[in-house]
């Protein structure tokens, strides 16, 4: 297993990693617009021609976490579905 790294060094580009929360490891990522570590969020897609704050979508309702450390995820290279 890879050595734990300080949470301040965790990726903030949307890449998934395993965050250590208590005794658990949770697959999560940094959401740059919401400015939180989260494992999922919801996206409201506006109808064509409408916008919120100049965007055609609004991300909301993140499942947030407060990790104390992190390790790279072995799953990162297989999917990018959680990236905002």
Overall domain count: 1
Task: Please count the helical segments.
Answer: 0
- The H-and-E topology, N to C, reads as EEEEEE
Question: What are the segments in which pLDDT stays under 50 over at least 5 consecutive residues?
Answer: 78-82
User: What does the largest sheet look like?
Assistant: 6 strands, antiparallel
Helix-and-strand structural type: mainly beta
Share of helix, binned: under 10%
The main sheet orders its strands as 1-6-2-3-4-5
Number of strands: 6
Detailed description of the structure:
The protein is an all-beta fold. The protein contains no helices and 6 strands. It has strands at residues 5-6, 17-21, 24-31, 36-45, 57-65, 69-72. Strands 1-6-2-3-4-5 form a 6-stranded antiparallel beta sheet, with no helix packed on it. Strand 3 and strand 4 (36-45) form a beta hairpin. The two termini are 28 Å apart.
List the topology elements.
Layout: E1 5-6, E2 17-21, E3 24-31, E4 36-45, E5 57-65, E6 69-72
Antiparallel strand pairs: 1-6, 2-3, 2-6, 3-4, 4-5
